């Protein structure tokens, strides 16, 4: 799992981590604090399987089984009862005070005792309780180790055999003394006979006693050796003397809960990101589209509420982003050829209209003449914003074979508050029928004859066949991608459909459109406007030079004698 994926998942799903983090704190916050100061003493015992034990453990071959058996002894009621009697405490108090835990992955057992009380007598009392518990357990091992009664009986029997052998040897020595004197005289010495010849019964008794004594000594040595090898456990730490009371019980629980909650939140965020159907981050979007994301256009409340703000008063922090997008788009066209840019979205409300208006104004601020073409038939937002329904627009261009004036002699374009920018709207409702796959070429060509740069608001890229045709005929395709609501499958389908425009595709991460707010009026075509903001009126006296204004006024009067022109008339 790549680090970028982890960071993106945590950033997008940070609220999950925060939620689990807070939930983890609940046990620590709800736990009752201890009634008084609690002191704890601990002792450590190394529990090892005997190297030579009785038949049961000797045949098991499983050290863990032996340790589990010893843990059962440590937690047995018999041991608790014995410690309770030795310390003059109740069985319940000892059972609640003592804890026995095996440390992970080792054969070390920790015996702990916890008591509440004052700072004077309780520390020593809790130490004595823990040590008494360990000593009581150790006593059970000593009975297994020592076998003192049996060894004492062997010692007694060995001593008795030695005494009998001494008596027999003395009797043999007395009996053989006469023969020894005869063998040592100077004249006529005689050979000393064997005791077997002199007194065979006494000799047999001596040999029997010797054999019995050797057997007893062997049994005693084996018993001592076996008892020393039987138990390998030992105490590695006596009970400690507590110096300070334990912290409040909720503190450890709170810290552990916070950590566990945060880790659970991280795991949940990773799992959600891994199995989610939505696009996770820019890297994922770039991988699906096959081209890098150009930039990210952040959310602006002013633009979300009124798209015209992108044309009139683009936020200062958004200007570098749009400028970069304009530069990338201009690089797709030839030096002397008009530039045509189609702005489409991956879905409805992706922000294509806002990007189109912002790019048109930034192109115009650089001194270029710009035509904005409204090709979003299902939501002609730009036509509504600039009141372009009164002019010929797209239907007039299609009807007059790409002419820039309609059959009344009026321009098909609509003026805007910027003299460098004009709009080719969808006109009346006939615009939806006029803009088709086979007519978009003539519409785009008419717009190119009018201005140096053509910006087309195409709406969702896959809504209409005419929109896909526009992406094929344009120089650059700006794709508005609302990452927060974009599904992987939909974006993958988008990448396949726009495969012909892959070399001119400019993806931009946007914020999804908001829901209509209070005071907004939603039209039958899906557009919304606000009741507390009047439609902007274009003041030509402030925007158009005097000479051009005079020519336009007289031209308009000649062309429209006897008819009422809309407030923002044709360009």
Question: What does it look like?
Answer:
This protein is an alpha/beta fold. It folds into three domains: 164 residues, no CATH class; 82 residues; 278 residues, Rossmann fold. 51% of the residues lie in helices and 13% in strands. It has 24 helices and 14 strands. A hairpin with a 5-residue loop joins strand 2 and strand 3. Helix 2 runs antiparallel to helix 11, helix 8 runs antiparallel to helix 10 and helix 15 packs across helix 16.
Give structural attributes:
571 residues; alpha/beta; Rossmann fold; eight-stranded mixed sheet; four-stranded antiparallel sheet; 24 helices; 51% helix; rod-shaped
Could you give a quick summary of the protein structure above?
The protein is of the alpha/beta class and 571 residues long. Helices cover 51% and strands 13% of the residues.
CATH class of the largest domain: Alpha Beta
- How is the largest sheet built, in terms of strand order? 5-12-11-6-10-7-9-8
Number of separate helices? 24
How can the largest sheet be summarized?
Answer: 8 strands, mixed
Radius of gyration: 51 Å
The CATH homologous superfamily of the largest domain? P-loop containing nucleotide triphosphate hydrolases
Give the overall silhouette: rod-shaped
Per DSSP, what share of the residues sits in E-state strands of 2 or more residues? 5-15%
Average pLDDT, rounded to a whole number, is 78
Which regions are unreliable across 5 or more consecutive residues at pLDDT < 50? Answer: 53-60, 516-571
Could you say what the CATH topology of the largest domain is called?
A: Rossmann fold
Q: Tell me which CATH architecture of the largest domain applies here.
A: 3-Layer(aba) Sandwich
Indicate how many domains the architecture comprises.
3
Number of strands: 14
What distance lies between the first and last C-alpha atoms, to the nearest angstrom?
A: 57 Å
Helix/sheet category: alpha/beta
User: How much helicity do the residues have?
Assistant: 40-55%
């Amino acid at each position: 799992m790549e680090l970028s994926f982890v960071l993106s998942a945590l950033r997008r799903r940070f609220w999950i981590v925060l939620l689990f983090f807070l939930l983890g704190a609940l046990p620590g916050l709800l736990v009752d604090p201890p009634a008084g100061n609690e002191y704890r003493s601990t002792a450590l015992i190394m529990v090892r399987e005997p190297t030579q034990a009785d038949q049961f453990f000797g045949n098991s071959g499983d050290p863990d089984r032996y340790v589990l058996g010893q843990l059962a002894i440590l937690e047995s009621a018999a041991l608790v009862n014995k410690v309770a009697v030795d310390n003059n405490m109740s069985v319940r108090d000892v059972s609640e005070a003592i804890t026995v835990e095996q440390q992970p992955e080792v054969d070390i057992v920790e015996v702990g005792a916890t008591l509440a009380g004052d700072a004077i007598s309780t520390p020593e009392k809790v130490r004595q309780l823990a040590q008494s518990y360990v000593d009581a357990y150790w006593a059970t091992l000593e009975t297994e180790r020592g076998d003192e009664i049996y060894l004492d009986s062997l010692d007694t029997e060995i001593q008795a055999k030695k005494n009998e052998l001494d008596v027999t040897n003395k009797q043999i020595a007395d009996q053989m003394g006469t023969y020894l004197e005869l063998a040592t005289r100077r004249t006529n010495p005689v050979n000393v006979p064997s005791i077997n010849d002199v007194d065979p019964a006494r000799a047999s008794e001596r040999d029997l006693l010797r054999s019995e004594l050797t057997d007893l000594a062997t049994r005693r040595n084996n018993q001592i050796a076996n008892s020393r090898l039987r138990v390998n456990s030992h105490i590695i730490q006596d009970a400690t003397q507590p110096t300070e009371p334990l912290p409040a019980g909720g503190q450890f629980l709170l810290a552990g809960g916070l950590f566990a909650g945060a880790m659970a939140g991280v795991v949940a965020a990773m799992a959600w990101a891994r199995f989610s159907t939505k696009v996770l981050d820019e890297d994922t979007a770039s991988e699906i589209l096959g081209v890098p994301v150009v930039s990210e256009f952040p959310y602006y409340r002013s633009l979300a509420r009124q798209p015209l703000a992108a044309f009139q008063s683009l936020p200062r922090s958004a200007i570098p982003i749009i400028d970069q997008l304009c530069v990338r788009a201009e690089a797709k066209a030839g030096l002397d050829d008009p530039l045509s840019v189609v702005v489409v979205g991956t879905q409805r409300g992706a922000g294509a209209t806002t990007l189109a208006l912002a790019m048109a104004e930034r192109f115009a601020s650089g001194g270029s003449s710009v035509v904005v073409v409204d090709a979003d038939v299902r939501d002609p937002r730009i036509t509504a914003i600039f009141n372009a329904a009164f002019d010929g627009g797209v239907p007039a261009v299609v009807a007059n074979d790409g002419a820039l004036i309609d059959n009344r002699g009026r321009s098909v374009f609509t003026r805007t508050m910027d003299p460098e920018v004009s709009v080719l709207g969808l006109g009346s409702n006939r615009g939806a029928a006029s803009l088709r796959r086979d007519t978009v070429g003539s519409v785009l060509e008419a717009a190119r004859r009018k201005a140096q740069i053509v910006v087309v608001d195409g709406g969702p890229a896959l809504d209409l066949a005419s929109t896909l045709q526009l992406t094929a005929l344009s120089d650059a395709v700006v794709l508005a991608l609302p990452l927060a609501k974009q599904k992987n499958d939909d974006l993958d389908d988008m990448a396949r459909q726009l495969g012909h425009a892959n070399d001119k595709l400019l993806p931009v991460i946007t914020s999804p459109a908001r829901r209509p707010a209070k005071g907004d009026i939603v039209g039958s075509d899906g557009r919304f406007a606000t009741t507390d903001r009047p439609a902007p009126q274009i003041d030509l006296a402030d925007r158009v030079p005097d000479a051009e204004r005079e020519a336009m006024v007289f031209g308009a009067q000649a062309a429209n004698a006897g008819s009422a022109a809309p407030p923002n008339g044709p360009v």
